[in-house]
Structure formats: C-alpha cells, structure tokens
Amino acid sequence: MYMVAFLGPNASYTHQAARDRFNQDTCVLSPQVTIEDVFQQVQSRVAKFGVVPFENSTNGSVVFTLDLFADIKSRHPDIVVCGEAYVDVHHCLLGRGAARLTDTSLSSKTDSPTSSGQATPTSKVPYPKTPAVKPVVPVKHVKKLYSHPQAWGQCRDFLSTYLKGVERQDVSSTSRAAELVAEDQSGSSAAISSAIAAEVHGLDVLARNIEDSADNKTRFFILKRTDCLEHQPMHRGAKVVDDDQNSFKSLVSFTVNHEDPGSLADSLAVFKSYKLNLTSINTRPSGLVPWNYIFFIEFKGRRENDGATGAVNAALRDLNNVAKCWRWLGSWESEL
Amino acid sequence: MYMVAFLGPNASYTHQAARDRFNQDTCVLSPQVTIEDVFQQVQSRVAKFGVVPFENSTNGSVVFTLDLFADIKSRHPDIVVCGEAYVDVHHCLLGRGAARLTDTSLSSKTDSPTSSGQATPTSKVPYPKTPAVKPVVPVKHVKKLYSHPQAWGQCRDFLSTYLKGVERQDVSSTSRAAELVAEDQSGSSAAISSAIAAEVHGLDVLARNIEDSADNKTRFFILKRTDCLEHQPMHRGAKVVDDDQNSFKSLVSFTVNHEDPGSLADSLAVFKSYKLNLTSINTRPSGLVPWNYIFFIEFKGRRENDGATGAVNAALRDLNNVAKCWRWLGSWESEL
C-alpha cells in the first residue's frame, strides 16, 4: 500500500479526481489541508503521488498551484507532473428539504415571486437568462448560503433567479460549506457543493446541476517525484497507451530577460520550430522583482523516451539559449 | 463636474488610486460595489472615467478585470484603458488598542510566547523568517481576524509570528474588514487593512507595514469610452509628456485557432517584428469552448497619434492575419 496525497477535505472535487484515478485496493488516499501540503507530502516521500487542481474550464488557472510549481524558495525541486484527470463539476444546492424542517414557518410551500423561475429584469441585466434547472424542493426557507468563492460565479443564473439577495458566506472549499450547513440545526442555510458532499454530510439535494455552463470541468494534475520511475498507475477503461507524441503533454516553466524585446516571442518560437503545439500558457509574478514574470507553457509532446535527439529535448536545448532559466515539470499522457 | 467610478468602498486601495490621479475640485469620485459596475458606469456614460485594479506585484492579475475586458457578452464594447496608477500596498493591523479596552482580561500587557518576535519552527518551515516589523501595541487580545483573501498571503511572516492560529474570516475587501471590526464592540477582533481605513472607521493601528515584501504594489487602470477624446486629465507632479513610443503602453486581446500549432507564437512574433516590447501576457478561458483561451498582451507603444503607417497599426494589421480575432483595448502613458 502506498499513499496518495490530495487536496481535501474528503468529498472535495480533488478527492473525486483521486478516486477516479487510483485503485483504493493498493493505495491509501490521504486528504491534505492545502495544495502546498500535497506538494510537500510528495517531495518528502511520505506520499508516492499527489493530486492537485490545476485549472477550471470556466474560472481558469489555480494560481496557488502555479506558484508552487514556480517554487521560488526551492522547496519542491523534485516534483513533476505524471498524469492529469478531468472531473465534471456539477454544483448542487445542499441543505434541509422543507419536509425535514420542524419549524413550519420555514417550510412554506408557496414560492416567493423571486422563485418563479424568472429572474427580475434590471437596468443592468435587461434580459436575464432563465436557468436550465429548477429546485427539486422549495428553497424559500434558505436565508444564508455557503460556498467557495469560485462557485458563485459558476452558478450566476440559478442564484439570481431563485436565491436573489440571500446572504453569502465565502468558505475555503465547497465541502467545508456542506459541513457548516450540516452543523446548522436551524435548517435555514444551504451550501453550493457536490452531490458526494450531500452523502458524506447527510444533507438533502435542494437543486441539482445549478452551474451556468453544462461544460464546467476542472483539470487536476497527478504529481510524483522525478526519481519515481512508476507512471501514474491506473487508467479506468484500460485505454491503450499510444506512443505518438500527440497523445502526451509536457509542462515547462521559464523566465526571460525583461530588458530584451521579443525574448518571450523567441522562447515560444522555439517550440513552434520543432512543431510542438502549445496547449496553454500561464503567467505569474516572478516573486523576485516586481513586474517580472515566470511563464508556464504546456505543449504536445513527451520528454521521457524522447532520447537526446528527440524534438522535446532539442527544443529545451534551444530554449536554454533564449530564456533566462527554465525547468521541465513533467510529461504525461493526455486525457482529453 | 464629471463622475469617476471606482471599485469601492471608500478607503479601498482603488479609492486611493483614484484620489491620486483625479483632482476632486473638478470631479466626483463614486464608489461602486463591483468591478463590473465600474465598467458599466463608464460604458453607459454615467461616469466619464473608471478606476479598476489590474494586477498586484505579489499576487498577479485580477481575473475579474481580465474577464470584463474579454467581454464575451459584448456588454462593454466601448471601454478602453487611458491611464494607469501604481499604489504602494502597505497593510496594517487595525483594531482596538489595549488601552481603549474596558475588559481588562483582554488588555494583558505580558506578551504570549508566540508574540516573541520569533515564529515557531515547524517541520514544514524549519527556518521561519522573522518579520521586519513588530506590533506597536500588544496584540494578544486579538481573537479573530478579518481581511480580503489576498491579504493573508501577503502578510504570512507577521501573522505566523504574532497571530499564529487566530481564526480568520474572509471578507470582500480590506475596507469591509475594517468596517466589521469597527462594529465589533468587544474589541477582540482586528482587520488587515489600510492606514486610510483606520482613519475612516476610527480604529487604532496595532501594527504598520506588516506585508512580507516591502515592494508590494497594485497597478490600477483608468478606463474611458473610446469616443471620449480627453486623456486621463491629471498627473500629480506635472510630468512632461514625452512622445517617445517607449513612454506609452498598449493593451490588446486576441484569440487564436487552437488547431493551428504555433499560432500563439506567430501572434507574438508580429509584435517582435515591429520592435514592440511585450511587457505582460495574460490568459483566460475563452468562455466559449472549454480549454480555448483568450490572450491579453501589453506592449510598449501607442496607437493614438501613431497614424496608419505607425508600428502599432502595422502590427495590428499583421495580427489580423494570424489571430482569429483581436481587440485594441487602449494606449496610455506608462507610469513606471
């Protein structure tokens, strides 16, 4: 049995990614409080693998994860990405259904005008979208909402239609939101969280799939140490591993000389010259000098098995001539 | 008198940027609840100018502002940047000084061991940094902290030394944090906020400049409508306006054909070929197709007065051949 560290708590979306990608007969999934804890558990060899969120299709990159890869204090020099996982993020409204409430004043079955399924037009939003879903039980008794800050922006249509003006409390994760609602005996609070969290915390699903975009997904990275020779071991569905460069992705970080016009363009041109298609680029403050940046690029291709003469190694040699410094952060099989 | 909309509330860092850059004898500064409200006030001509945060030197870009520039619903088609402002972000710990507390149990003058000025070494942080500053009054009575989520990460050394383990509550702005602490009659809560907020809300400064990096700055953009011909009117210090391209910056957004390897590299190469130095690049989800992106680049140079034959217009014509679509988002005088 080996350990896999993931960003907890239990029932988080990262937990779901870890459960999808690791066979729990052969490993122990260990929830961590922060993304940095996951990096440190892997760096220090306590865990063999780690699972961290990297980007959401609606909200973009997870900057905490990028900053840990930037690693300006050199705390995780041996961490590389060895796999990815995509999880559909379907938010639910979790709370106490009206039938379970003892206080009848909270269990009114007559909907308020704002629960009509029509958002109120305002001068700012003259033609509000009608959300695709309706609550499965009335939600008029909900007086306070808990969730992770990212979730509000993903459920705008539902919230503006059925829970307009209800007080919102930011918390550290959607699972924590469910936990707080479970502790609230009044039954008048609700969480935007996952269906799994409803099971774990014994809550009712008041509404399902309340996200604005049905395509809402989060991408997770599987981490290991560079000296760990195992690949991320399990694929549900026993996908055939294809050795074509296009079925792999690689991540590289680099900094440029900010005095040199075009050094970023030159760095990206290197990958083009070896026909390595860029799939994402991210920028973060360098952490050293204000308004200097570190860049992260992902591209199609694989360094392992690539050999000293392969395209990825050749591109990295050229990058060495135009970038100030760079770091290879892993190659893995694409799941997209 | 014209109106300048800024991201409020009063005493926010954006307010400070607006006060630095606009003469209040000739305009009214109007606080807005969200960054989107600032865009809309300018788009609808209610305000002539707007002030919004764009990036912090420690924490990076403000994604809400980027997404409003991406403008996928075409709600702010006429907004351009016409100026920038840099504000030093010096966080203070605000609360009630022990001398003002009536409950003597909270006003102990003996510091606890965790207030020794030495953080406790842990296995994770074996050599903690000693913060550069000490509280001006004892802070042992502080049992709860309020701040904007960005501030915790900017004050890590101070918090881990003097306020280790104290409960933290995220709120929507550092000014809102000060307001909540002002309302708390017990005197046992404190806010990480600005010195201005201490004045506005009648709080004591318990510690000054508690940020980890003395270089902590936030950059703000001044917005106007494209059809507003005035430049952002006021410069404190009556800087001489130099018409050299290098004293101006421009912002452009563009999307690329994701099927075409190298299209991002080609788009950036356009600017290099006209010797327009890139100063920043940002990426956000396109909002249309998952894992497709919109890019934002800033470069040295000015489109206004550039004429049809100038370098910026020439680069934009070439960009038109390699990018899927693009939008010019303004040129302004660099303040750096």
UniProtKB/TrEMBL annotation, chains A, B:
GO terms for biological process: L-phenylalanine biosynthetic process. InterPro entries: ACT-like_dom_sf, ACT_dom, Chor_mutase/pphenate_deHydtase, Preph_deHydtase. GO terms for molecular function: prephenate dehydratase activity. Its EC number is 4.2.1.51. Keywords: Amino-acid biosynthesis, Aromatic amino acid biosynthesis, Lyase, Phenylalanine biosynthesis. One of its GO terms (cellular component) is cytoplasm. Residues 252-327 form the ACT domain. It is an enzyme of class 4 (lyase). Pathway: Amino-acid biosynthesis; L-phenylalanine biosynthesis; phenylpyruvate from prephenate: step 1/1. Gene3D superfamilies: 3.30.70.260, Periplasmic binding protein-like II (3.40.190.10). Residues 104-129 are annotated as: Disordered. Residues 3-225 form the Prephenate dehydratase domain. It catalyses: prephenate + H(+) = 3-phenylpyruvate + CO2 + H2O. Residues 104-116 have a biased composition (Low complexity). Pfam families: PDT. This is prephenate dehydratase. It comes from Lineolata rhizophorae. The lineage of its organism: Eukaryota, Fungi, Dikarya, Ascomycota, Pezizomycotina.
